[in-house]
Amino acid sequence: MASTANLPTAVPADKTPNVYSGTKAKAFIFLGTDVIVPNVTVTNTLAVSSGATTMTLSTPTNTLIPSGTLLTFGTTQVTTSAAATVTNAGVSVSIGAAPAAIAQGITATYSNLLEIPAAEEITPTPNDMEESINVHGRTTPIRVMNGKDLTANIRTLAGIDDPVVKRLVAKGWALSPNNREKIIWLYDDGFALLATVNIGAPKPQAAPMGSQRYQFTANLAGTLAWSDTTAASPTWNVVNT
């Protein structure tokens, strides 16, 4: 019988929660208001003990980090519990209780785009809201546009132990306007769609020998815009203006 004494004592870091979409189309929750922050290096400037509810962070340039932001320092994930503008000098930031100690000088990458993990379906469906008449048995638009609408299904191959899924679950159980999110869909050809939506009630899905899934609906509740990210100077083109 093999002895457990011969097992390597150092165990590789588990990256299981960080499983993202395997498809070319991706979807992100946009946490910002008017500026997209793709990635900023965030440094922990003072050692943090396990269970701490504050930590001192610094960034090369002034960066607004909203409440509810997930930051990963090495293998330890913390979530901010209050918004803070972090500077190069270092700013104390409130966090949920740290699950483990975090060494001084370790860094995380911050973005106000949260990728929806392992997205099996992220299909946005735009609809034309036109007035129409029936001409010779055919429904014909009379070109009076009331606007564009949008609905979407979001299905993730992940459970509530994933922080992004948990955020969507919490939004889905809230009443409007507390269930609103800004979602960005990004496709491999460079097409991007931005919509402020109401997140529908979460539908947990599972079966024997099957993987855990959550499904949400997303219905347009505010701004809708599109962009061609392959353009020389990409801009958001707002729909219904």
How do the strands and helices of this protein lay out in sequence?
Elements (H helix, E strand, L loop, with lengths): L25 E5 L9 E5 L9 E5 L4 E3 L4 E4 L2 E4 L4 E3 L4 E4 L12 E4 L2 E3 L3 E3 L2 E12 L2 E19 L6 H11 L6 E7 L4 E9 L3 E3 L7 E16 L8 E2 L3
Antiparallel strand pairs: 1-10, 1-14, 2-3, 2-9, 3-8, 4-7, 5-6, 11-13, 12-13, 13-17, 14-15, 15-17, 16-17, 17-18
Structural commentary:
By secondary structure, the protein is mainly beta. It has 2 domains: 25-35 and 114-238; 40-110. Helix content is 5%, strand content 46%. Strands 1, 10, 11, 12, 13, 14, 15, 16, 17 and 18 form a 10-stranded antiparallel sheet that branches. The chain has a 4-stranded antiparallel sheet with strand order 8-3-2-9, with no helix packed on it. A two-stranded antiparallel sheet has the order 4-7.
Number of domains: 2
Tell me, rounded to a whole number, the average pLDDT.
88
Structural class: mainly beta
Question: What radius of gyration results from the CA coordinates?
Answer: 22 Å
With helices defined by DSSP (H or I, 4 residues minimum), what is the helix count?
Answer: 1
Question: What share of the residues does DSSP label as strand, in percent?
Answer: over 45%
How is the main sheet built?
A: 10 strands, antiparallel
Pattern of helices and strands: EEEEEEEEEEEEEHEEEEE
Q: Tell me roughly what share of residues is in helical segments.
A: under 10%
Low-confidence stretches: none
| Rough outline | globular
Spatial gap, N to C terminus: 74 Å
Let me know the number of strands: 18
